[in-house]
Amino acid sequence: MTEPSAQQHRRPTDVVPAVCWVVSVALLAGSVVVSSADPAAAAGVPGFDDPAWGWSAGVLGLQALALARWGGHPRAALLAVAAAVPALVTLGDALGVALVAVMVAAYRAVLARPPRPLGPTLLGAGALVVIGFAGAGLVNGGSGLRVVVGGLMQGAAAVGLPFVAASVVGSRRDALDALARTAAAQGRERDALVQVAVERERTAMARELHDIAAHHLSGIAVMTGAIGRQIDVDPEGAKVAVAQVREQSTAMLRDLRHLVVLLRDVDAPVEPGGPVRMETLAGIGDLVAGAQGAGLPVTLTTTGPVRELAASGAVGPLAQLAAYRVVQEALANAARHAPGAPCEVRLDASDEGRVEVVVRNGPRSEGAAPARHDPGYGLVGMQERAELTGATLRFGPTLEGGWQVRLTVPAAVHPRPGDATGDPTGDATTSEGQDR
Questions:
Q1: Cα torsion through 324, 397, 395, 369, rounded to 10
Q2: I need a surface site. Which of 246, 323, 334, 380 has the fewest CB within 10 A?
Q3: What pLDDT shows up at residue 356?
Q4: Which residues belong to any copy of the Histidine kinase/HSP90-like ATPase domain (predicted)?
Q5: Contacts of 312 (CB under 8 A, 6+ apart)
Q6: d(CA 57, CA 22)
Q7: Which residue spans of the chain are classified as CATH 3.30.565.10?
Q8: Burial of 282 (0-12, 13-18, 19+ CB in 10 A)
Q9: What architecture is domain 198-432?
């Protein structure tokens, strides 16, 4: 977009005074026409052939010139424009045409920013208007008291009306500016919060990365130590151990690849020097206990060898983390949307090759209002976790009016020693399916 030219910058300052002069001269000409038709309707108005008419048009031009030249000094412009009113006492009843520029100048002075004390300037301008109208009244033969009262009313109207209008407009502008500054401050605050969230996310990512590496590498270290002893005395067992090492290595690479896109939620930072741990299926019991301590009526039911699957690695660390986070989010949603409703967490590992995690809550209690909270993306995050680990997630309302979340996590079946002589590619395929 091109920069505005200097002429475009001057346009508002030049046009308004010119319009004021044209309007004032047009009203003066109209007053002459009215006075010619009915002298009683506009007394003391000079005709077009009267030198006073030309003088008046010139003074009105000086008013417009003061508005244009002193636009950057609205108080001085107001006093200069008001000083022209006493100089036009020869207009008689048509003196009101001089108030057009006075009212514009007063409006500009009140609206000028930054605001400054305007009392002396407004009083001075009002006094000049009063003097001008009182003088015009005396020239037309008016009585003293009536002339003074009329002049005071004209002065109050010429200064007071623009003051009120400009005050309203200025207050609205100040309110809009305040809203804009507030929005800008809120934007900066949001940016700061995002930055804090990013830093916390990096901390969480480093924590999870440590756990993934420790989980797999510790197993690899143990198995490679056994291979050194078995390779001569138990070749078949060494082959099984080699296959398991490859399985652990493949799983670790896959987990590291998925880690960046999986970590979306922000955990509370670990205490300095505190232990770093990976959330697993076994930790869901502590999660339920914490929810019970917070007042949520939740129960936990476990079927099948859940802890054994978690400890054996049949369910990979990222899949266990996903299950843990899904239960965590589902319990949080139940507490927010159905406070006081009974909730059940069920872990079922009775079917070989999978672990089913179900969180089911009843309808909201009668009279219990859901807690206020900002809209989030809990269900979206659950779905992403399920997709990235090969799990299946289903959620929706129940027939009783509650809500249910069901996550089915695949679990790998580790090969028996007798199966290790098969195609080693099949072992890698099996490990690929443990988190998917």
A1: -40
A2: 380
A3: 94
A4: 322-411
A5: 414
A6: 10
A7: 198-432
A8: middle
A9: 2-Layer Sandwich (3.30)
Which range among 154-158, 208-212, 337-341, 430-434 shows the weakest confidence by mean pLDDT?
Answer: 430-434
- Measured distance CA(227)–CA(245) in Å, rounded: 10
H or E, element range at 83: helix 74-83
More confident: 99 or 228: 99
> Distance between CA atoms of 411 and 432, rounded to whole angstroms?
11
Percent of the chain with pLDDT over 90: 10
What pTM value is reported for the model? Answer: 0.42
pLDDT tens digits for range 44-80 = 677 777 787 788 888 888 888 888 888 778 888 888 8
Q: Residue 152 corresponds to which amino acid?
A: L
Contacts of 349 (CB under 8 A, 6+ apart): 303, 304, 305, 306, 309, 355, 356, 411
Question: Structure tokens of 93?
Answer: 């009843």
Residue type, 314: A
CA dihedral 367, 369, 370, 373 (to 10 degrees): -170
DSSP states of 204-254: HHHHHHHHHHHHHHHHHHHHHHHHHHHHHH-HHHHHHHHHHHHHHHHHHHH
CA distance linking residue 72 with residue 111, whole number of Å: 12
